[in-house]
Design brief:
By secondary structure, the protein is α/β, with parallel strands linked by helices. The chain has two domains: 9-82 and 152-207, P-loop containing nucleotide triphosphate hydrolases (Rossmann fold, 3-Layer(aba) Sandwich), CATH 3.40.50.300; 84-144 and 210-259, no CATH class. Helices cover 44% and strands 10% of the residues. It contains twelve helices and five strands. It has a five-stranded parallel sheet with strand order 2-3-1-4-5. Helix 3 (84-97) packs across helix 5 (126-135), helix 5 (126-135) runs parallel beside helix 12 (230-246) and helix 8 (170-178) packs across helix 9 (183-195). The protein is globular and about 55 Å long. The chain starts with 8 loop residues before the first strand and ends in a 16-residue tail after the last helix.
């Protein structure tokens, strides 16, 4: 990452269960501390013709950021992905206990009159729930990660696995420099990052509010290794193995299945 002049637009994109709540709180905290506006930007969002007088943080938690902004010379961005298998595990667990996601509570004919959450809870065990989640919300998350353009020089590409191990906050500091923040601002952002990280201030569970706890079941990497059964792994490899390779998480679509113990 190289030093860059402060841009006008700072774009932040994540995907479902890739650190969305984490990044939302971190960048909202940075925006508050630096007195910067932070706005949700849909694909059709467009700035006014003149560049803004101050920097603006734009976010989209499905990474559906406006292309016209991403293509601007005065834009810098951060895009975060996660091992899709852990996205599946985390998504399944979250959808079983979430309370404020409207789609989870709407009765649907395809689920026999049950809601998404109700159907999940009705299933007999986690392997069955993983199989269900795999064909529902998880399919969308994989599609969104795959359709993202990874060849944008003004966007820092990071993995959740890198950030959750960034206990000295060095990687995140480099990202902030890349996004155009000054040295003083990076020190502020570094502290905000620490305050909102599970290895930082939130390592003390008493410091987490109910909403954070709702979104976080573990935060650890490689949860799929102890959650997948051989049967779940085989089906996952068949349906999403090539996506794991394309996203750089495996060198082969199916070889990793042998790591799962019966």
């Amino acid at each position: 990452m190289t030093d860059l002049a402060a841009p006008h637009f700072i774009c932040v994109g994540t995907h479902h269960k890739t650190g969305t709540m984490w990044m939302r709180r971190v960048f909202r905290g940075i925006a508050r501390r630096l007195d910067l506006p932070m706005k949700h930007a849909s694909p059709n969002w467009a700035p006014r013709r003149k560049a803004p007088k101050t920097r603006v943080i734009l976010y989209n938690w499905m990474s559906r950021l406006p292309e016209r902004v991403l293509r601007r010379e005065d834009t810098r961005g951060l895009h975060l992905i996660r091992d899709p298998r852990d996205v599946l595990v985390s998504g399944m667990r979250y959808h079983m206990r979430a309370k404020d996601e409207q789609f989870l509570f709407t009765p649907r004919k395809k689920f026999g009159g049950r809601s998404y959450q109700g159907y999940l809870m009705h299933l007999p065990d986690d392997p069955a729930r993983l199989m269900f989640e795999m064909e529902e919300m998880h399919r969308r998350a994989i599609h969104q990660m795959r359709e993202w353009n990874y060849d944008q020089p003004n966007v820092a590409e990071l993995r959740y696995e890198e950030l959750i191990a960034d206990t000295d906050c060095e990687i995140f500091s480099e990202v902030l420099f890349f996004l155009g923040f000054s040295e003083e601002e990076v020190m502020i952002g570094r502290q905000v990052f620490w305050n909102h990280s599970l290895f930082g201030r939130l390592a003390d569970k008493s410091r987490r509010d109910a909403r954070v706890d709702l979104h976080i079941s573990s935060g650890a990497t490689g949860q799929w290794r102890t959650t997948f059964t051989p049967e779940v792994a085989e089906v996952y490899a068949e349906r999403y193995g090539h996506d794991l390779v394309a996203l750089g998480y495996e060198p082969h679509p199916t070889d990793w299945v042998s790591e799962i113990e019966s």
